[in-house]
Design brief:
- This protein has helices at 12-42, 63-90, 96-119, 126-149.
- By secondary structure, the protein is mainly α.
- InterPro entries: MAPEG-like_dom_sf, Membr-assoc_MAPEG, MGST1-like.
C-alpha cells in the first residue's frame, strides 16, 4: 500500500531524491550546451542550415564534439534509469541514511564521470570508477525494489 508520506517533502529520502534528480537534469542540459560550444569552437556542424559560411561543410567527426556527445549519451543510458529506480526505491521506505547516500553516490559519480570524460580528460580508471559507482548504486536500488515487490 502506498503511503502518502513517502512522496512528500516531509520525507527526507524523497526530498533528497528530487534534489539529486533535479541536479542531474541540469547536468544533462549542460551537456547539450557543451556540445554546442564545441561545435562553434571547432566549426563542426551536423546540419546544412547551421553552417555559418558557404565555405563550411557538414562534419560529423570532430573528436571533441564526439567525446561530449558520447558522455551525454552515457548520461541518457544511466541517469534516466536512476530517475525511475530512485523513485521506486523511495517508495520501499528504505533506511534514510542508506538511500540518501546512494542518491549522493549516483549524483556525484555521474558528475565526476562527465568531468573526467568530457571536460578534463583523465586516463582510466577514473571514468570507469565513476561509471561503476553509479551503476552499482542504481543496480542495488533496483534489486531492493524487486525484493520489496515480491512478485
Amino acid at each position: 500500500m502506498l503511503h502518502r508520506e513517502l512522496i512528500s517533502l516531509d520525507n527526507e529520502v524523497f526530498r533528497c531524491y528530487i534534489g539529486w534528480s533535479a541536479l542531474l537534469v541540469l547536468k544533462m542540459f549542460s551537456m547539450s550546451l557543451v556540445t554546442g560550444i564545441w561545435r562553434f569552437i571547432t566549426l563542426t556542424f551536423a546540419n546544412q542550415e547551421d553552417l555559418m559560411s558557404p565555405k563550411l561543410k557538414v562534419k560529423f567527426d570532430d573528436p571533441n564534439v564526439e567525446r561530449v556527445r558520447r558522455a551525454h549519451r552515457n548520461d541518457l543510458e544511466n541517469i534516466l534509469p536512476f530517475f525511475i529506480i530512485g523513485l521506486l526505491y523511495t517508495l520501499t521506505n528504505p533506511s534514510a541514511f542508506l538511500a540518501i547516500n546512494l542518491f549522493r553516490a549516483v549524483g556525484i559519480s555521474r558528475i565526476a564521470h562527465t568531468l573526467v570524460y568530457a571536460v578534463v580528460v583523465v586516463p582510466q580508471p577514473a571514468r570507469a570508477l565513476a561509471f561503476f559507482v553509479a551503476l552499482l548504486a542504481t543496480a542495488y536500488m533496483a534489486l531492493q525494489v524487486i525484493a520489496a515487490a515480491a512478485f
